[in-house]
Amino acid sequence: MRKGQMRWTVAVVASTGVVAAGAGAVVHSRTNPPVRQAADVAVPLQVSAAEADQTERYWTARRMTAAAPVAGRALQPQVGARAAAPRGVPTAKAFGGVRTIGALFFTTQDKRDHYCTASVIASNSRRLLLTAAHCIHGGKGHGYVRNVAFVPKYDRGRAPYGVWTARSALVYSGWQKRGDPDLDFGFVTINPRKGRNIQSVVGAYRLGINRGTGLWVNVAGNPKATWDRRDRPIWCRVKTKRQSRYQIRMDCGGFYGGTSGSPWILNYNPRNNTGYVNGVLGGYQGGGNTHYTSYSPYFDKDIHNLRKLADSRA
Description:
The protein is of the alpha+beta class and 314 residues long. The protein has one domain: Thrombin, subunit H (Beta Barrel), CATH 2.40.10. It has helices at residues 49-58, 61-66, 173-178, 198-202, 301-313, and strands at residues 26-27, 45-46, 68-69, 93-94, 101-107, 113-121, 128-131, 146-152, 164-170, 186-190, 206-208, 216-221, 234-239, 241-244, 247-251, 263-269, 274-280, 293-297. The strands form 3 sheets. Strands 1-11-17-16-12-13-4 form a 7-stranded mixed beta sheet, with no helix packed on it. A 6-stranded antiparallel barrel has the order 5-6-7-10-9-8. It is globular. The protein starts with 25 loop residues before the first strand and ends with a helix. Keywords: Signal. This is V8-like Glu-specific endopeptidase. Residues 1-20 form the signal peptide. InterPro entries: Glutamyl_endopeptidase, Peptidase_S1_PA, Peptidase_S1_PA_chymotrypsin, Trypsin_dom.
């Protein structure tokens, strides 16, 4: 492989527990997952065609470069330098990025420009992105963000696959009303571009639910250049751990601000850039108070049901 390309180990998908039912297929666990109370869906964000056109014009290369990471993962190096991870903890590697993962740009209610990381998720509509809920809705006392746009394989102000605007966004009311970290995930529906849907252009990962922990995942994101002088997307292959009943964690250095929403990809195949997203960087502590320990809500029926609803409304 070329230098800088992800050297993600090929994992074999287990023959049991896989539901292969069309574009929205998910992979299930063979064990009984934890059960939480049913989550109610919040009122979605709806974006008009005129607003979408304005958003596409808004996100110039200069504005994208100037955008700051969202406050949910307000991480920065200590004493103006990149703080080292503890001994034995791996550090993420820089690479050229993949087209199914990119930067999600938006403007918060205080009219400041921010960004997170998001990934394309397989769906019947072929229009869905997955990210952390705190990247698209401010939680208790706040509302949805505006000027939402996705740039696949974003790299240093460049948009090799164009700027894709949002049509809608959806989170659970538990996040909207309480900022529940166990529901810190959400979906964005993307408008077609030049007559084609996002999944048709860049591909997509499938959704993995109820898989437990102790699994190898590949995590990729876009840290802010101010905090990572390499100014490139990063990736890390690491095992998940159980943090709490509805939270999982991974330990890998380099996941500074900008990596909120980064997908945790199970059974990644580097030959065709496929796999199952089993988590997103978010949840407990907004995703983590250090760059070397990150969290994700546990993926179960709640995220599966939210994806299904977002897809039906796309």
